[in-house]
């Protein structure tokens, strides 16, 4: 037997929590800002093609098509007086301009607010072209927009009302308010919030209309905390949409349903917790119990992690926990539950007094799985967005998108068991942080921005996964499945019928058995390209790495000899060793994933007697050489 049995010399690129696939997007559906926009507010209407971007003294109306982006720019300058006053006071000078902080459609009014150089101002955008004053004189711009862009404000429009949360800064304590619309305008009491920094808000549907709530996500910062004490506390605060305020002498213009809870993100009870909530995204469904909230947290070392919370758990905490500092029994109406105002027990002054002095529940909210999601620790996350997808098995799956400090976007399938990173997108030419993301589930797009550029990505980006059933199914992307009739990896059509449809997916684990035997691979599936080389010159045979969860290796002459390969960039390059010098013959690059071996490329190596015309290459650096080889061979 002249078989040389070597151990599998497969090169391992696999890491437990690394992205399986890496894509670089070059398509032109992007818009470049003339000047960098360091603070951005995005607004989009589900299912549309227009994205409104609020920037510095400018609203950009961007119409996306597959061919490119059409833009209309509406200047919104700061008042000259306000700007002068701002510049003369020694504020951060760069913030003395009109930064658009709020863009919301409230019933038929498109409300736009900006910082207006320290004295916030609001307009309404009419016919997508003209900014006019808002007719309703009730509106107080300083309750809706912060005076400076670095002080975050959060806004949410639902059911004809605008809800606004302002972060604390300087002497401003921060607040949660209803600021515009048909319902009574309400606010938080100052003592309910300790230096809040808001990061998000969401409407949470209820089992019945009057049970609807607004959740606010924020961190509280304790200015007087001692050095080795954690100054941040992550919070969820909530109010009922039916809240109409208290009685004449008690909480007359304040919420009567406000309650807040501490949110933990870390392993069990160990002290290493992530307390600074930086971003939040709520995924809600018609049935609220299916809802999930993703929070992006950081710790004192600025390491970022993501924790997921079930809305059911949060509900349970709010409806059963003791109130902090209150030990008497709660008789009658429980603080924080949503009831219509005509239910008199909700408004007796005794209950209101309890509400006024006890805004916090004692129970803390813990993440699903009692730990942060398992994600690459060297990525610093800056943005989150998420979507629920109805898969072909009629189950809903959560897909999470994370933007990083280096301009990448991770697409993650999140199930109860794990966080599987479907892919990593490189969308921008520079490495700057992702500054904003907006998701349009209905229209099937994700909008992603850096300071200088914004672009959109299809949620069902199925054509990137390759043209075999196996590749499509291994992607574990709930938006995509293998259509055996069309022999294509396709988006799941709207209204897909589980009993009549025939699209293959395998989401809970990578199982390609759905693809059946017919698609099982032939042993040699590629035809070797001939490569003529100098017998003692360098040879670099590249093999494109598609899956970073696979292992790669080279085989020669029908598996008799196995050569290792070394990963360089997106390629696994044949690396002969002194023990295994190159010989003429057929070299096949094989990938191994999920116990399944597949041929990626093959070459027939033929030695040339004389020097190669391209032998100059031997004097080049290996990376250049590889690039040259790749161009030459691919
Ligand atoms: C908006 O468009 C309508 C109908 O075209 C027109 O009547 C109205 O004057 C426009 N409003 C403004 C402020 O331009
Ligand atoms: C802030 O920290 C100080 C020092 O530990 C503590 O006395 C105070 O109660 C804290 N404030 C809040 C609101 O937690
Ligand atoms: C309260 O008002 C709602 C409608 O506003 C009505 O449906 C309900 O019956 C009333 N409840 C009581 C106890 O009067
Ligand atoms: C799916 O197709 C079956 C068979 O044609 C039909 O009976 C069923 O109503 C369909 N289901 C849905 C949700 O359309
Ligand atoms: C894959 O799915 C098939 C059919 O559903 C099943 O028989 C098989 O055990 C699964 N394989 C793995 C590794 O789970």
Automatic annotation (TrEMBL):
Can you say where in the cell this protein is located?
Membrane
Which terms does the UniProt entry file under GO BP? axon guidance; neural crest cell migration; positive regulation of cell migration; semaphorin-plexin signaling pathway
Q: What start and end residues bound the annotated signal peptide?
A: 1-15
SUPFAM superfamilies (UniProt xref): Plexin repeat, Sema domain
Q: Which Gene3D superfamilies match?
A: Immunoglobulins, ligand-binding face of the semaphorins, domain 2, YVTN repeat-like/Quinoprotein amine dehydrogenase
Keywords attached to this Swiss-Prot or TrEMBL record, sorted alphabetically, are:
Developmental protein, Differentiation, Disulfide bond, Glycoprotein, Membrane, Neurogenesis, Signal, Transmembrane, Transmembrane helix
Q: Which residues form the Sema domain?
A: 20-459
User: For this UniProt entry, what is the primary localization, expressed as one broad class?
Assistant: membrane
Q: Which GO terms describe its molecular function?
A: chemorepellent activity; semaphorin receptor binding
**GO annotations of cellular component type:** plasma membrane
Which family does this protein fall into?
Belongs to the semaphorin family.
Q: What is this protein called?
A: Semaphorin-1A
